Amino acid sequence: MLKIIEIEARLFLRDRLNSLFAVLFPSLLLLVLGAIPALRTPDANFGGQRFIDSYVSALVVFTLVFIGLQRLPAVVATYREKGVLRRLSTTPMHPARLLAGQMVVNFAAVILSVLLLIILGYVVFGVDLPHHPLGLACAVVLGGAGTFALGLVIAALAPNARTAGGWAAVVFMLLMFLGGVYLPRFMLPSAIQVIGSYAPPGVEALQQAWLGTAPDWRHLAIMGLVSLVAGTVAAKTFRWE
């Protein structure tokens, strides 16, 4: 298992464009936004906070959604299309371990990206450290699990890597919109805000844990339910060949 994780980590690092983008882009975008004076000024629209303070949760959403829906399904679908999974099925190692290695490496990338965002935001712009670290960790894990499970459903049903990329792009844009990445959430209709609060990866829980108190248990429960249901669907429909 450790060897599989090592190999998957090497392959992740070889894909420099996607890997660096997933890990570094949220922090780079924070630097760009923070360079705008108006976005470093407290605003009543954000509850007296600065835009960059309220936007950090959306940047975490970007990391989870990009890795879970842009990278994971494409890699798994490519493995199937190129016969990697079929070859592994003839060996003593079950192909499921390959998926486990993928999950470990991608979650490690998420953690690295979030830690970099926390450090950079605090050192450069004085963004508050997460007010509820344990709550943020739970929100990231459960929100990531739900998002990754959706990615695995796409990987399970898509006949090839190109189709997986197309399906994932649609879900990616939808979750980015609901997560307040494209537009600040206060600008969205109230019904869309509510839907976004419960849709993976759970922007409301992330924001509560970072800038407020413990995240609402209902948001975390929904993330856990999504990961359970989507994970079950992926397991039932997944094809190794």
TrEMBL record:
Keyword hit for Transport: yes
Alphabetical list of InterPro entries matching this protein: ABC-2_transporter, ABC2_TM, ABC2_TM_bact-type, ABC_2_transport
Domain ABC transmembrane type-2 stretches: 17-241
Residues spanning the membrane: 20-39, 59-79, 99-122, 134-157, 164-183, 220-238
Subcellular localization, as worded in the UniProt entry: Cell membrane; Membrane
Main location: membrane
One Gene Ontology cellular component annotation held by this UniProt entry: ATP-binding cassette (ABC) transporter complex
Biological processes per GO annotation: response to antibiotic
Keywords: Antibiotic resistance, Cell membrane, Membrane, Transmembrane, Transmembrane helix, Transport
One MF annotation (Gene Ontology) recorded for this entry: ABC-type transporter activity
One Pfam match: ABC2_membrane
Protein's membrane topology: Multi-pass membrane protein
Sequence similarity: Belongs to the ABC-2 integral membrane protein family.
Name of the protein in its database record: Transport permease protein
Species of the source: Lentzea albidocapillata
Source species taxonomy: Bacteria, Bacillati, Actinomycetota, Actinomycetes, Pseudonocardiales
